[in-house]
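sanity check this fold:
=====
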Amino acid sequence: MSEVLLDPVAVARGLRRVAGEIAEHGGVRDLALVGIRRGGEPLAERLAALLRELEGEAPPTGSIDITLYRDDAATALPNPKIGPSRIPFEVRGKRVVLVDDVIYTGRTIRAALDAVLDYGRPRRIELCVLVDRGGRELPIHPDYTVRRVELGPGQRIEVAQKDDGAWATIEDASTLGGT
């Protein structure tokens, strides 16, 4: 069973609003966007384009793979597929906005913080997510959110990039192989 949470129009509208909020908190000077692989990468690129429209210039963007930073890497990832991290700018002194598609327990974000800090010490790190589904296990809260929703234990959020844009759906875990 699947329920549409955000269609491409709602995603575009929400990202436009969030870009405005990011710009209001200091513009793009000394700002950098870092997408968490995989879901955060395309969202960070879209936010950069929206910020270019609003501010006349886009902040630099990068991406990080958090596979080796996960606190369950040894047990949950017997055969990890590690992708490249790409931060082609100096993070020291910058306002870095981490971008991800969904926040749940907060563990992915904790790992992403460790990964970013390996590149240097930013002035500030903020968090932007497409969907906050609640259920935090760590004291981590997004600064910018397109949509918040409380889900039951048998549900999860799936975000898919399609030709017409990004879709976020609520899925019954039993239809996803019990995950």
User: Anything to note?
Assistant: The chain is about 25% helix and 30% strand. The mean pLDDT is 91. The first strand starts at residue 2 and ends at 6. The two ends are 14 Å apart (CA to CA).
